[in-house]
Predict the structure.
Amino acid sequence: MPVKATPAAHTSTGRLGWLVLPALLIFVAFAVIPLIGVFVLSFTSWDGIGAISFTGLTSWKAVLTDPGLPHALWVTFLVIVLSWIAQTPLSILLGVFISGSQRYRAVLAVLFFLPLLLSAAAVSIAYKALLDPNFGLGPGLNLGFLTQDWLGRGTLAMGVVIFIIAWQWIPFHSLIYQGAIRQIPVSMYEAAQIDGAGRVRQFFSITLPQLKNTMITSSTLMIVGSLTTFDLIFVLTQGGPNDATRVLALDMYLTGFRANQMGLASAIAVILVVVGLVLAQLLQRLGGKERNSQLEGA
Amino acid sequence: MDHNRASRRSFLALAGATPLVATVLASCGDSGPAGASSDAATDWILTGQPKEGIRQGAVDDWNKAHEDQQIKTSSFQNDAYKAKIKTAIGAGQAPTIIFGWGGGTLRSYAQGGQVDDLTSWLQTNSGVKDRLFDAAFAAGTVDGKIYGLPTETVQPLVLFYNKKLFKQVGAEPPKTWDDLMGLVTTFNAAGIAPISLGGQSRWTNMMWLELLFDRIGGPELFESIYNGQPNWTDPSAIDALTKVQDLVKADGFIKGFASITADSNADQALLYTDKAAMMLHGTWTYGGMKTDGGDFVSSGNLGYMNFPEVTGGKGDPMNTFGNPAQYVSISSKATQKQKDIALAYFKDGLLQDKEAEAYINEAGEVPIVKGIDSKFTGLEDEEWLKFTYDLATNAPSFAQSWDQALSPTEAETLLDNIEKLFGLAITPQEFASNMNAAIGK
């Protein structure tokens, strides 16, 4: 299969190959060794305190037969898909908007980027306070529709999680799209104008196709990001109510550090890695072909 | 060649997917005060005034008086501490003095050989043991040996109520469970939430179950479960589980309780802002309501009582639940010098008169020192302190909170299922069979 030659692949065969050494060492120390450790731990039973005892496939059996796993996978899948749907169209439209050059857009862009500067934990705490059914924004301003049990009902809580993820990350993805849009040659739009294409037609026939690779990059980041969403949900709902927002990453943490079952948690972690790998590979496949410039085709 | 590249690529993809895994393991090596590197004993304390200041004050006084036996403190938030201490102990990086709540967690430390047996030390230094509440030692004892020295305060559960709201609807505090269910109707009709509950914290819900189990089945019921018998399906247990769901279905708890947390004290705020009429909570909330509740406590609007009886139930209505004390243990990984400092501090520095009086005066809590009630006279909180002292010392049974008594694994299953029980996502029978399956884990 045709594979893109990465810059790393070039240098590693060249004379400057040793330059990757520090990065490689760090990667081995902080990713490969822990990964092997987690894999080994998944065949043990360990409460995190006492002795580690090898119990073979016991942890795996327990995880794979636990009805909690399909549920956590489903919730994770929902978060991935819903947050992609919530973020991508808005990010593209915002990206198109702020890629213009008027000064007010620059000012607005700064405002749009504010959520990006805040940590997920701070954002969650703030939203939790705002959405409080008794002391939050709704009761404070006497707005009936805002006075919901936002985090106490499953579907609402999931909606809130998706909303906050989108609120926080749309600025980032808009920024990527903005950069990509500015790369599209103006001549293409000029040609389209001469052919009598309107703005909407231009958007669908030029801008969107030219953004294909950017969309794949942005989607990869979104999907891998959603897969490992943890802090936000941990602070906001603790996976509740009734496991409605218990994603895989949170399930792993709670199993390991709350229930003291490191073996089970490690098995979940391995599953998380596998799911991440499969998704990343799929996306690479999707974008790996048609390497040649999009400028002419599409 | 192709193969080579493909493997390199998956290698990189692997890197993208592993940061979380890496974090998990990396946090195991988190830098705690390393045991051998320093002569000072280390002590981790909890944040949150006024108790943080009292804990720190006791250590400061000790350090001033003992230049050659220094203790170094680090402070952590309650929930963060619970997660960190477990990881630190697992990684052999525990502080010299390990603070905790006894019960199942201490049992797992003791069985993992992480904390020292204090039994013989307490025999030699019998004065330390004799001045503390006898009942406080049970939760610090594992297999007949004392691993946790009780300290700080006794914290039974109390049914708080808002006197102003009770007067407004012309109601009396409930004497029985049926009274309580009647009050739910009364308050709902008046547009007031009957009971405040920080349901997202889950252990808050558990307090209702604990006392219902006790009042209906007696303390023996949970004891038998604790000792490994699958008695969650006992008729008394099912009755208690059903009663709590009846209370949920009757809108007994404030709307949206599942999204309210106890960490932010929102449940206390509901009581003192006249939004809810009752709240079942530990005595530790008194200080918070006094500081944050304006004149709610000082103007006498806060009522408190022991949990009402359930007619026909086996349990003594004088029984209570909660934290018999907090506990300090000695890390077995500490150096001998550090251990010696810590033991000397346990003997002459910890919970001495000054610290005990500070708990009374500043936190409104009762330290676990025998005869301490003589210090209550004339204080602003005299009535409250007397009530707590009597509740704790007169109770025929003072059981430890379930989530502390059970092993961490079983406790987590319990809290998970309690959340679902209160969310009406499972039936009492499902709850019981889920819990029976988790016994001994």
Remarks:
- Chain B touches chain A through 56 residues (CB under 8 Å).
- Chain B has two domains: 3-154+323-399, 156-321+403-438.
